[in-house]
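CORE FACILITY INTAKE
Project code: CF-77B
Contact: R.S. (postdoc)
Sample description: multi-component assembly, four entities in total
Requested service: structural model of the whole complex
Turnaround: standard
Below are the sequence entries exactly as provided by the requester. Do not edit them.
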Amino acid sequence: LHEDGREQVAGFHMAGDLLGLDAIGGGHHVCDAVALDDSEVCEIPLDALEQLSREIPSLQLHFHRILSREIVRDHGMMLLLGSMRADERLAVFLLNLSQRHAARGYSPVELLLRMTRADIGSYLGLKLETVSRALSRMQALDLIEVRNRHLRIIDMDGLKSIASRCAAT
Amino acid sequence: LHEDGREQVAGFHMAGDLLGLDAIGGGHHVCDAVALDDSEVCEIPLDALEQLSREIPSLQLHFHRILSREIVRDHGMMLLLGSMRADERLAVFLLNLSQRHAARGYSPVELLLRMTRADIGSYLGLKLETVSRALSRMQALDLIEVRNRHLRIIDMDGLKSIASRCAAT
DNA sequence: CGGTAAATTGATCTCCATCAAAGATAGTGG
DNA sequence: CCACTATCTTTGATGGAGATCAATTTACCG
């Protein structure tokens, strides 16, 4: 995502995720996408989708549900970026990754981070060093085990309690 | 917006704005709305809107455009919350307010802030004291003139240059 | 006019950014 | 196969922006 020079990672997509939901409605994309791994992409022509969703109400419903979820997700990110500290952000990030892994039939505790620390930092509004430090701290607390891009969640509940330790901003 | 205790101002709406765009697609609202002034609200039944937009393609197009804009707007906020300092955030906020005022036929320089400093802070990911200090600083630089909730923009270009002084995160 | 909520301003502290350097990893070519 | 290089990662030291704590001051409303 870029807008007057600045740029930021707006999200990480996994198999089955839709992307490019900005530009629905005819506008131009304000984000671009970079593959972090060998990927297959299925392009959905917007007008065909709109045409079909006019004919099939349940498709329309699903389409709108997806758009809505994107908005809710973004609001969650705004909350995270606006009021969480470094390790809370990271905990939320890891738990989210874990959930999505599990939803796709992979292990919820064994994660392979496809992105660099800088990417994670950009996404979470942190610097890469801060991400690295937070990971090390979590490892020291036996919450996770990190070896480069390989990450294993040891104490899921511990992570959850970090992620939701309220700050009541 | 609240989710496990925390809460945050997700946006400020003005006359004509749609709100409640979470919950499109049948879900539950994750935000609620508070009137900061005497307000009239026109409720749009979702299923009627979807029904109509199935029949009127241009309505569907507009509807999708609005949803898309919301997503783009949120991404802008994520950028702001993730990588801007206090006065940049405030400058962006004021310029945005000014634009929307102008679009409605009001003066772009004479603003009446309907919300508290705490609300602004919550929206921008800052504390109320920080908002207050940033405003005072801008006033000292003759960029704006604040008297309580009344705000006058004196140097629009100055504000713009603050808003876009890149930080290249 | 008195009481309450909001706003300003000051002092201090904390967390994260920044600067800097060393260690690990993967890819390249001899 | 191994040295070689570029990139990524970790870790340390320092500084700064904003949070937090606290005390006035100002505006608002019955």
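Facility notes:
- Chain A has a mean pLDDT of 91.
- The longest helix of chain A spans residues 57-83.
Invoice: internal transfer
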